[in-house]
Amino acid sequence: MNRQLKKLILTAGIAALAGSVYAGDYPAPVPLQDGAQAPIDAIKPKNETYRIAYMPPATEFNYYIAIGEGIKAVAADAGVEVFMLAPQSGADINGQMGMIQDVLTQDVDAIIFGTHDEFAAAPLLKKAVDDGIAVMMINSDIPNFPTPIHGVVGYSQRNGTHAMADWAIENHGNEPVRVGVIEGQPGYHSTERVGGFMDGIEGNENFEVVVSIDGKWNVEGGNVAGMDILQSHPDLDMIFAANDYMLIGASLAAKALGRTDLVMLGNDGDTSGLEEIAAGNITATVNTSPFLMGRAAMSATLDALDGKYEGGWIETPTSIEDKDGAIAVLQEPEKLFPQPSKEY
Q1: Which residues lie below 8 Å from residue 293, measured CB to CB, with a gap of 6+?
Q2: Once rounded to an integer, what is the mean pLDDT over residues 173-196?
Q3: What range defines the domain where residue 214 resides?
Q4: Phi, psi of 136 (to 5 degrees)
Q5: Same domain flag for 212 and 189
Q6: pTM: predicted TM-score of the whole model, two decimal places
């Protein structure tokens, strides 16, 4: 499939999600693996006006705030109540588990969640499902969460970063490239994102991954990881990071070390990441349209509460954006949160 056709398919997918209000206006779900689907008919709403908890891994990531804005937009159209509860740090797994425990005592009708530790969250979410609460996972494509849940909404993480590897080969694959990888904290998200990139460059003799370390999903962790790998491997040509926050941190390390020649590749399409690409500080990212993901997640949640959602995974679109593409995305600020820092 050529790049122009891919772009047309992506544009159609984004247009469909952008027009979503609620009640089934999202791509057809793909079934989860056997045993992973919680029954939709066991959902028992408690409130006449639905009350929905949005529980991302942390508030430190604008990416999850952008998803939340999409959720809130659909909630406002539908006249339902939604509130967000999350720890400040994505590394605070215990904090998130305590918050989920608390929400289970609050008579909510649904939980839309993301987590950096699926196995820690599973027993609590099993209790939610058993209590008749609709449970939807966002920013994932996991087909077999450790306990059955009602649905998953997100992009294909492995396919997205495999496409980034294809882009890297197309644009930088004519000469030897020494690559450093910055992983997220161990878990499904990091495994899939790093795995997709590694699959994409596998067998290409010009690409060699010489180091791969944890950047803890945030800017500070990415800065520490970037400084470490650049000092220990000063001949690196490229850094791939599993999210844009870690890549931004690594770019600060590269700047401090005078490394303006690095190819720097990320994943997310967060507003700050897109602006760093536009400014020439990083090279490209997998744009995953978090605001539109939030709209799709809330639409499916409302349908689940109304018994109209069949369950499964809803795939949201991705694209690879370098400087020209990032500027084009930034020129549509109504689809972004937070808003860009300036007009493009």
Answers
A1: 17, 67, 70, 138, 139, 153, 154, 155, 316
A2: 96
A3: 157-287
A4: -125, 135
A5: yes
A6: 0.84
